[in-house]
Amino acid sequence: MIRTPLRPLARVLKARESGENPDLIERENRRLRQEAARDQARNRAEGRLVVLSLIFVCAFVVLSARMGLLAATEPVALARGIAEDISSARADILDRKGRVMATNLATHSLYAETRRMVEPERAAQELARIFPDIDAERMAARFTDPNRRFIWIRTRLSPEQQQAVHDIGEPGLLFGPREMRVYPNGRMAAHVMGGASFGQQGVRAAEVIGVAGIELYFDERLRDPEQVDQPLHLALDLTVQATVTEVLEGGKHMLNARGATAVLMDVHTGEVLSLVSLPDFDPNTRPAPPTEGEPADSPLFNRAVQGYYELGSVMKTLAVAQGLDEGTVSPSTIIDTRGPLTWGRFRIRDFRNYGPELSVKDVMVKSSNIGTARIMQPIGATRQQEFLRKFGLLDTMPLELAEAARARPLLPDRWSDLSVMTISYGHGMSTSPLALASAYASMVNGGRKVTPTLLKQDSVQGGKQIISPRTSDQIKLMLHQVVQEGTASFARIPGYPVGGKTGSADKPNPRGGGYKKDAVLATFASVFPAHDPRYVLIVTLDEPVDTTGPEPRRTAGWTAVPVSAEITRRVAPLLGLRPVRVEDANAAFAQSH
To answer: Rounded to an integer, what is the distance from CA 259 to the centroid of its chain?
Structure first.
């Protein structure tokens, strides 16, 4: 670097010659040198500021990105090393009149981040006080375990529990928002609802999934983001459901029955307006499946759908309907009812001696096993199977419940001539109360096949014609005569003519084979109004016994029929049915014939 002298000799000599002051030259050069030094220092300082600014900006960006990532990442995902994308939204479920049966409710979960805990032992003691099922010592050991960073404590909290945890004042106890499934009507229609639970869970959300019933059957539809704002409308009527449940519970208790079920169905649309199975449960706190005992004794067991039973004499209506429809008999045809009816080493007997002969109509009214078996003898196994299959009794019932798809009827290994006769009066094959309701609806609605549904319908089902309208009219009259003259006399209700058929089937012994002693399954299959059926009601009681008389009475006429009559008396006005005079009902029957 060449330094410029402050007093250059050439310029000084020249200045002296011209009479100028040489000191001005030195002063000017000093000024220029100082300005140059100042500019250099300023440039150096500005360069350093730019570098520091860039370093600061980069650091700020890195820290901000890291903080944003941490804020968006849930502790569960960090602990497990997975990313979460959880949607907890789920569509509401409403009854046919728009009343809420299932909905989501905002709540909170409780978890612990152990590294943030200040007093883990005290926190464990306080949590045990709030939640009695928590073991304080075990929870304290989990809190102080150096290998644990995250601990789930509760998947959902009530507002009172949340406040109590807040009051502990422990910074390591944290809350996460989520939604839970709530059934505001509690046990009402529990077997239809089924229940829901949490699937994939995170701190900020939890997946709500169906575990049984209609919640499981329509799980994808209820969770579909495009349909989550569109409620699922059921055919159930909550008021009718509550009434049926109340009466059925009272009947079960009074008759000391092990269980009970009732199905109320529209005979034209197939809509199931009420489905009750007892014992039941609260889907808000769904119990665990049983590990021992008979499945039917569990409150989770849906007797109406999963319960396939030998239902007894209610099946005689189908046998008579087939004989009438195929023309092998008429209502006035005389049937030989002398007994016992011998077939090999087997004997078929009636409940009591009805005489040597009965008309087909009286076979129904008096419920003769021998008479029904003789009606079916000329029809045979092949045609009987074809007829029952048309009603859906040999296949799984297609109802919108997850349990329905897993329940199948029990059929004979070899459909022999003896099977034809025993099945005609309700032994030798099993069916469900729901399937029976569908069959009776098809028999009395003019003969068109009806498929039961839990979804609200806007129109009548256009099912296939499976029996003639004439046969349907004959069956309606016979069912009414059973109530007026036969085994279902307790079903008479002023203003509401009822038709129906009783069935009292011995219960199979699951352990020793054969049948239990003094244990029956009592069923009453009824239709109302009898002259113009709108609804079918199936009531089944498991091992009922009426002790009001001098001797115990177990048959359906003394057990299932009175319960069914009380249900009909209460729900008929709720369904909009007006009372009719006996004369008008009789005139309607006369006109149809």
So the answer is: 20
